[in-house]
Amino acid sequence: MALREVRLVPDSVLRKTAKPVKEMTPRLQTLVKDMFNTMDSEDGIGLAGPQVGILKRIFTVGIGDIRLCFVNPEILETRGEYLDVEGCLSIPGETGVVKRPEYVKVKAMNEKNEEFVIEAKNLLARCILHELDHLDGVLFTDKLVEVDEDFEPEEQSEELLVSLTYTEKE
């Protein structure tokens, strides 16, 4: 397993729309392993295909014990909203406040070609939505919100994973 080079702004690949994955091949499974390794080595909590120069609708998330790969993700539902500080491995040293839903329900496949539906809250929801944006060429800096200098993020509950259900493909 290798480390991939994280593409940095202003690399044009970060502004392109990723293409759907037609099938999970051994090569894409290796990519997923490399993305987890790269994300971990960079102390990130998410990494999208375009960030390593691969224009495929695929991203990884790793927060605590939660480690998931999302292939061809589709948002089913969002609820609520809150402001928090975000950063990005592709924009080192820069952070800003972004408003995002506090809950998201997403359908995707994993690297084993298993379909799942996940319901996430707070930081996990934020991370999933941030990585989903990368698949459409959107960066967190496009969504910055003006806040007072003394802005403090709202306290969020520790609950991140509401449910994770593997489903039979139709």
What does this structure look like?
Its cofactor is Fe(2+). This protein is an alpha+beta fold and 170 residues long. The chain has 2 helices and 8 strands; from the N terminus they run αβββββββαβ. The chain has a 6-stranded antiparallel sheet with strand order 1-2-3-6-7-8, with helices on both faces. It has a two-stranded antiparallel ribbon with strand order 4-5. A hairpin with a 2-residue loop joins strand 2 (58-63) and strand 3. The protein is globular.
List the total number of helices: 2
Task: Specify the helix fraction band.
Answer: 10-25%
User: Radius of gyration over alpha carbons?
Assistant: 15 Å
Which shape, going by the Cα principal axes?
globular
Strand segment tally: 8
Profile the largest sheet.
6 strands, antiparallel
Helix-strand makeup class? alpha+beta
Mean pLDDT: 95
Beta-strand proportion? 25-35%
Low-confidence stretches: none
Strands side by side in the biggest sheet? 1-2-3-6-7-8
Q: Report how far the terminal alpha carbons are from each other.
A: 33 Å
What's the short version?
With 170 residues, the protein is of the alpha+beta class. The chain has helices at residues 26-41, 122-135; strands at 46-48, 58-63, 66-79, 82-87, 95-100, 103-109, 115-121, 161-167.
What structural keywords apply?
two-stranded antiparallel sheet; 33% strand; 8 strands; 170 residues; 2 helices; 18% helix
List the helices and strands and how they pair.
Blueprint: H1 26-41, E1 46-48, E2 58-63, E3 66-79, E4 82-87, E5 95-100, E6 103-109, E7 115-121, H2 122-135, E8 161-167
Antiparallel strand pairs: 1-2, 2-3, 3-6, 4-5, 6-7, 7-8
